TrEMBL record:
Pfam family, one: NMO
Name of this protein: Propionate 3-nitronate monooxygenase
Highest taxon listed in the record's lineage: Bacteria
Lineage: Bacteria, Bacillati, Actinomycetota, Actinomycetes, Micromonosporales
Gene3D superfamilies: Aldolase class I
Coiled-coil portions: none
Length: 345
């Protein structure tokens, strides 16, 4: 495959990549729309069964849409019973309006159907698989590569980038601190100093010698141009797609992104036990100081509360994931977002 570096890596006409926003925001319709506009869309497999992912794969493949799939790398249990129970009791009142007993919720750890999804993607290969939250095991990586799939790992530091390179991946996603949603840091207990996207891209490109996609803080075409100039092969866009016609983001989330009273984003672990950037709200203000690390256990603890609050239009109990460029998220088609971001290239 020849041409621009993003064409050689992803087969796309432009360097814009639709982020795999798990939890419902990145729908198959959004993946199709980004790709149809010349970008490259990623389907999120996080929080979903292998059967549900398989249905989306079949639907996209039937349309002839090239796309990638993102997987969450499972980690060990993240929290002990005593710490979990103390936090569950602390936030118990937040669930009461929805009839939820958060104080008595079970401590739940899972691997997000890891083996089933690897098996699925080996049987039904896609062009690219990306990994978030750590490094995949060598056997899974080898099986995907034998199937003809290119592999990418999200990194937040040069050290993580070098570890991924040494494992034998085909490329990296350098996620800066401005990115919305979960940080892809490999060990939240020992994070590197926060790094802005542009210098992180520059340093990772220089150190690792692999294609690097840039993720975090994209607000307009100038950011795409600057990140490409810093050495990025492509630029991942998430928050700017959240209010588009094809997005699956719920109405409460969409409205909050446009609410002038929402003036800042913060990094929080209060909702899921893993650092993530979102719009500041009162749940974060009340509970962030006491929130422990503990993913996915805290994710399971607050999941039903967040879903009920979103359905009820209560943004202060919802994880309003957003990057620092959220003010530039507009309604309309995803194609218009992709075309606008690439107009100056």
């Amino acid at each position: 495959m020849t041409g621009e570096p993003w064409t050689r890596l992803l087969g796309s006409a432009t360097p814009v990549i639709g982020a795999p926003m798990a939890g419902g925001a990145s729908t198959p319709a959004l993946v199709r729309a980004v790709t149809a506009a010349g970008g490259f869309g990623f389907l999120p497999a996080g929080y979903r069964s292998a059967e549900a992912v398989a249905a989306d794969l079949a639907g996209l493949e039937a349309t002839g849409t090239p796309f990638g799939v993102n997987l969450f790398v499972p980690g060990p249990p993240g929290i002990d019973e005593t710490t979990f129970r103390a936090y569950a009791r602390r936030i118990a009142a937040e669930g009461e309006p929805y009839g939820l007993d958060l104080a008595g919720a079970p401590l739940t750890h899972d691997d997000d159907h890891w083996s089933d999804k690897i098996d699925l993607l080996v049987r039904h290969p896609v062009p690219v698989v990306s990994f978030t939250f750590g490094l995949p095991d060598a056997a899974a990586l080898a099986a995907l590569r034998r199937a003809g799939t290119r592999t990418l790992v999200t990194v937040t530091s040069v050290a993580e980038a070098l570890a991924a390179r040494d494992l034998g991946v085909d490329g990296l996603i350098a996620q800066g601190t401005e990115a919305g949603g979960h940080s892809g840091v490999h060990d939240p207990h020992q994070p590197a100093s926060p790094a802005s996207t542009r210098p992180l891209v520059r340093d990772v490109v220089a150190a690792a010698g692999l294609p690097v996609l840039a993720a975090g803080g994209v607000a307009g075409p100038g950011d795409v141009r600057d990140l490409i100039a810093a050495g990025a092969t492509g630029v991942v866009v998430g928050t700017l797609l959240l209010r588009t016609d094809e997005s699956g983001a719920n109405r409460t989330h969409r409205d909050a992104l446009a609410d002038p009273a929402r003036t800042t984003t913060v990094i929080t672990r209060a909702f899921t036990g893993r650092p993530a950037r979102g719009l500041r709200n009162t749940f974060i203000d009340r509970h962030e100081p006491a929130a422990p690390l503990g993913y996915p256990e805290l994710h399971h603890l607050t999941r039903d509360m967040r879903a009920a609050a979103a359905a009820a239009g209560h943004p202060d109990r919802v994880h309003l994931w957003a990057g620092t460029g959220y003010r530039h998220a507009r309604t309309g088609s995803a194609a218009a977002v992709v075309e606008g971001l690439t107009a100056a290239l």
